[in-house]
Amino acid sequence: MKLSMRITLVGAFAAALLVMSPHSTPPAHALLPPVNEIVLNSSTIQVVHNPIANTDVLNASLDVTNLGDAGSCDGGDDDFLASGVFIAVSSQPCGIGSVTISSFITYVKHTIGSASYGTHFFSGGGTTVASKIVTLATPPGACGRWAINLQTTGVDLSAFTSNQISLILNDEEGDATALGNACFNVNAQIGNGITKPHRGAHHARH
Q1: Long-range contact list for 132-137, CB < 8 A, 24+ apart?
Q2: Which residues does residue 63 pair with via DSSP β-bridges, in sequence order?
Q3: What does pTM read for this prediction?
Q4: What's phi and psi for 31, nearest 5 deg?
Q5: Cβ distance 36 to 55 under 8 Å?
Q6: Do residues 17 and 156 make contact, with C-beta atoms less than 8 angstroms apart?
Q7: One-character DSSP codes across 56-95
Q8: What structural domains and CATH numbers belong to the chain?
Q9: C-alpha span between 163 and 190 (Å, rounded)
Q10: In Å, what is the CA distance from 43 to each residue of 55, 64, 89, 111, 149?
Q11: How far is CA 102 from CA 82, 90, 203, 204, in A?
Q12: Terminus-to-terminus CA distance in the chain, angstroms?
C-alpha cells in the first residue's frame, strides 16, 4: 500500500513514530477475500479525544497470527518479534480514503526462560509511542502468534468519530496478501478524555 506523505521509519530513532497521512487510501483489494498471511484473532482499539489539539491517544491490543507464504516463513521475515510489524489505523472502513496513522515497529527482544517478548519506545516531536509484543504458542503450520499492545500519545485523531474503522497489518516483506497489506474492518471505542476540574484557591478556615 502506498500512502501519500507516508513516512516509513527505520532504525532505533523512528521505527515506531506514528505519522499522519492525509488523504491516504487503504487498498481496494482489501475488500476482496485474498489469502491473507496474517490472521487477526482479536482486537481492541481505543481512540481518546482530548480538548487540546494534537494530544489524542490511540490504544491498541491485538492478537495476530502469521501463516507465512505457503509453508515458508521467509527466513524470519514473517516473525513479528524478530523482524517487526507494520500497523496502520484508518478512520474509515477498508477501501475508503481517509486519514491514516501508520508505523513500522521494530522490537528489542528479551527472553526469560522459554518466554520471549519485545519492547519498543519512542518519544519526539510531542509524540510518544510505546509497544510490547509477546510470543504466544504457535499454531500448527503457522510462523507465529503474538499479542501486541500499542499506545501512542500526542497525535491528531479528530477524523476518528464513528465505527467502523480499519486496521491494516503487514510483515517486514510487505506481502501479507498477494497485492500487499491485510486490511480488517474493526470496531473501536471512541470517546473523550477526562477533563480535570479546575480547582480554585483553598482558603484556610479560622
Answers
A1: 133/80, 133/81, 133/85, 133/107, 135/81, 136/63
A2: 42, 147
A3: 0.77
A4: -80, -15
A5: no
A6: no
A7: EEEEEEEEEEE--BTTB-GGGTT-HHHH-EEEEEESS-TT
A8: 11-192 (2.60.40)
A9: 8
A10: 23, 9, 12, 25, 10
A11: 19, 9, 49, 52
A12: 69
Give all strands of the β-sheet with 165-170 in edge-to-edge order: 19-24, 98-105, 85-90, 165-170, 182-186
Q: How many CB atoms lie within 10 A of CB 99?
A: 18
What the block records as the C-alpha cell of 135 is 510470543
Of 142, 140, 135, residue with least CA distance to 116:
135
4 neighbors 24 (Cβ within 8 angstroms)? yes
Among the residues of 41-176, which ranges form H helices? Answer: 80-83
| Pairing mode, strands 115-124 and 188-192 | unpaired
- Would you write out the chain's pLDDT as a tens digit for each of its 206 residues? 333 333 333 333 333 334 433 333 334 334 444 568 999 999 999 999 999 999 999 999 999 999 987 667 877 888 999 999 999 999 999 988 777 888 899 999 999 998 999 999 999 999 999 999 999 999 998 999 999 999 999 999 999 999 889 999 999 888 787 768 899 999 999 999 755 544 554 444 54
Dihedral class, residue 23 (left if φ above 0, else alpha if ψ from -120 to 50, else beta): left
> What order do you get walking across the sheet with 127-136 strand by strand?
108-112, 115-124, 127-136, 144-155, 56-66, 38-49, 188-192
Grid cell digits, residue 173: 516483506
